[in-house]
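Supplementary Note 2. Why include the ligand at all?

Several targets in our set were suspected to adopt different conformations when bound, so apo predictions alone were not considered sufficient. For every target with a known small-molecule partner we therefore ran a joint prediction. The input for coproporphyrinogen III is given below.
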Amino acid sequence: MNDTFLKACRGEQTDYTPIWIMRQAGRYLPEYQKIRGNVTFLELCKTPELCLEVTLQPIDILNVDAAILFSDILIPLEAMGTTLEFHEGHGPVFPTPIRNQADLDKLIVPNPEEHTGFVMETITLLRKELQVPLIGFAGAPFTCATYLIEGGSSKVFWETKKMMYTNPKLFHNMMRKITKTTALYLKAQANAGAQALQIFDSWVGILSPSDFQTYALPYVQEMIRDLQDTGLPIIYFANNGATLLELSETSGANILGLDWRINIGDAIKRLGNTAVQGNLDPFSLLLPKDELKKRIGRILDDAKDAKGHIFNLGHGIHQFTPPDQAKAAVDFVHELSQKQSH
Ligand code: CP3
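The joint prediction is reproduced in token form.
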């Protein structure tokens, strides 16, 4: 069993810096495309045997030090009673967005085992196969709320901010319901065998620090407090969150995920005792290998004073990334961070 990732999560000494890659299972791998060619994305998410297979693919192909459950942050939102569709080339769509109290009242706080049993079954299957730790995940309440309110992905988040500023009561009611749902969902993943939990806050970077404190952070804090009895390391990834770093540390997470817009050494100086994860620009994987290696070396060097460092990209791997470049990055991290034995 390779427990380097879990040791780094706990801030313990490791023989080398562990690495995994956000969205490591996905379309950039021909092996994924092959399976995905026969089923829709949602069918794939709901078939544990296939989820098992695609979760394992990057472990074997890239030699990463952790696995992340194959699923999507929108799965528990669908279980709340909404309709979720994925339109080829356009991403996710909720055809009936949540815009008023009556819409919200129709949503339930689902029992995760009952409504998303396929996720727990995938975790059970994975734990029998894996030689590396398994990360479970969910979206952070704010990021989940943007999808439900906008009805899909967004660039300006007009409807979300409109609700925050013109109907804060409704917005907070909605955040409470999502927080309950995601906390229960992550607890169920822990019970099923997940060994670490990551909370993805992909869109929280659109908030000012003060709005982050009012509209998003309290719910992340509540969720993490609720998850303390699982005893699992918790990673909070606030994408585009360099200006929210000190506040993010009050979330209670054991590890903060960093995007590439901040120097990792500067982030570590600003943080107290929290471990970090990150933070190579995903597009750096397009660089010639010698330059890629230099960039990785610089990040490892800048992160040498971290309480714990898990190497990752600063956001998900892009679908057109050549797999051999991702593999090279994993090898470089392992090679360059190898501790000399005396
Ligand atoms: O390997 C892994 O990291 C595990 C699987 C995983 C997926 N989505 C699979 C997926 C994880 C951890 C996610 C998280 C997720 N999903 C996030 C947070 C991370 C981030 O990138 O910020 C978000 C915002 C989503 C919502 C989502 N899912 C969008 C916006 C899209 C469409 C955009 C796109 O990239 O196509 C998805 C689809 C999706 N989720 C795919 C995969 C592999 C592609 C689906 C396909 O095969 O067509």
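The chain has one domain: 4-341. The radius of gyration is 19 Å. Comparable summaries for the other entries are listed in the accompanying table.
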